[in-house]
Amino acid sequence: MTYLHARPPRVKCTNHGVVQTHLPWAEANARFTTLFERFAIEVLKSCDVKSGAALLRISWDEAWHIIDKAVVRGLKKRKSRPKQIGIDEKTVGRGHDYVTIVSDLTKGTVIYIADERKKESLDGYFKRRTEKSLHRIEAIATDIWDPYIASIREYVPNSDTKLVFDRYHLMVHMLKAVDTVRKREHWKLKRIGDETLTGSKYTWLYSRENLPEKHKARFQSLKGKHLKTARAWAIKESFRDLWNYSRPAWALRHFKSWYFWATHSRLAPVIEKAKMFRKYLNQIMTYFKHRITNAVSEGLNSKIETLRKQAYGFRNREHFKISVYFHCGGLNLSTVTHKKP
Fold first, then answer.
1. pLDDT higher for 44 or 31?
2. Which residues are 86's β-sheet partners?
3. Do residues 172 and 279 both lie within one domain?
C-alpha cells in the first residue's frame, strides 16, 4: 500500500478568503487519489459494499463515501431528457412503503426516484424539466394509478395521446379478477363438500401456452366442468389477444367484442375490470401508436430488488436511492484522472 502525504499550497484572497489549490491527483477533501477512486468504483459496481470494501482494504464508510461522491458527480454531469419514459412504484420496506421510479425506456436507466407514490412524488420530476423538454416527451408507460395520471395530465402537453397503460399491469388486473372468481366459487363448492378447485390456484394464473405439462391433464378436466372460474380464465385470455393486432382499428373491434362478452359474463370481478378498462380505453389504444411497455421498468425493478436483498434491506432511504442511481442510473461515475492542458 502507498500513502501519499502532501501539504497543498493555499492562497489568501481578499474576496474569497483562504483558497486551497487544486491537486492533480485528488479531488477536494478526498481521502483517496482519483486513480484509486476510479478503480474502486469499478469494483463496487460489481459487488455489494461490504465485499467491495474488503477487496479494496478500506472501511465500509470509506467505500460508501466513494459511492456517494460518484453519484453526486454523475447526477451533475447528466443532461439527458428522454423522449420515452416509464413510471412505476417499488416497495422498499415492509407494508405499503413505496418509492416512485421514473426510467428512460430507451437507455434502460433510472432517471428519478421520489418517496411514496403520490401525485407530488411524480410532480417533482416534471418540475425539473423545462417547458421545451416536456413538449419533447413522446410516450409515457405507466399503470392505472390516479395520482400518476393526474400529474402527467397537469404537466405533459397533449398527455392523452402520449400516455400508454402498460399491458403487463392491465393483465395483472385481469389475473386478480380471475383469482377472485376462483376464491368465491371454491368457497361455495366447499360448502357442499365439492373439492374440485382445491389446489388449482396457480393453474388458472398461467397463460395457455405457458401452462406446465404436469398441469395440462387436470386443467383440461377443469375446463370441461363449466366452472365460472374457467369462463373468467377464457375472458382473460381473450383480452390478452388484444396486443396481437397490428392495426388499431382491428384491435378496437376486438376490444368491443371482448367488452360485450366480459360485461355479460355475470362475473362481478370481471365486469368491474372491464368497465375500468372501458373508462381508460384511449390510453390502452395509444399502445398501437407508440408500441411501448413498462418491461424495461420491470427489469430495473428486478435489479433493484437484487440490490435490496444484497444489502439485507435499507434502513436509510437516501442510501437506497444512492445505491439505485449507482447501479441502475447509467451515470458517468468516474473521476477525472487527466486534464487537457
1. 44
2. 103, 141
3. yes
